[in-house]
Predict the structure of C-type lectin domain-containing protein.
Amino acid sequence: MRYLVLLSFFISYSNADFTCPQGTTQLGSEHRCVYIHPTAEYYNWGARKCRDFGGYLAKMTNYFETSLIFALAGQSLDVSPYIGAQKMANGTWRFADGTPLNYSNWAPGEPNASDDNVICAILDIQSTKWKAVDCGAPRPFICTIEGDKAMTKQSTSNFNNGAASNLRCDYSYTWIGYIGDGQLNHGSWSDGTVVDYVAPYGSRSDEVPWKMINTNCYANYVQWSSTALTGVSARYICKQPSTMRARREAAEKL
């Protein structure tokens, strides 16, 4: 109840000259807007939807904003939604718009630094706290749109079979010729050469095929991702020595 009272107080003092896009709500008296998507979607789909509004997955820079967004989410969500905190390849966390995480509201023990697969964050609708999660499960999501991006009204529409919009990200990995556990001198390249370079996102206890993450849909862009043998990807990279080099090496053996 106290969060709803706080929400009502801030809305009553909002600037009447500022208008949020259709389907969004002004964040208290700030020139910022909030969009809450109650249907469970994949993280990357949510991130693109936020960009369609001119915003990003929710950025909260103080506890008042967290409380307001928590109150709005509690009115329409039963599942904790994705927000805009992302773990980068170097292990640090940043907001989805790329700015430093200068405010956080992590639950005790969060974020879990020991799990390399936990690179997204949710707002716990029971406690207002943030929790780090795997990005692979569909969830509701929340966007925030800054005032200079939100002055023009926009319209939204719903559509069926939205999973197809994930294909740009889900199938954009690129197979490489490495099978191993992600560590130097472990496993093998498909041409039999020594594994003297790796760029893995995480490591494995078993030897599996790897793919390059060559799309900015993901925070760990350009690193390698391990996958099961049943994994799918639309592309692969081939490599062969130049003809001149092959001839030179053959001549050296004579």
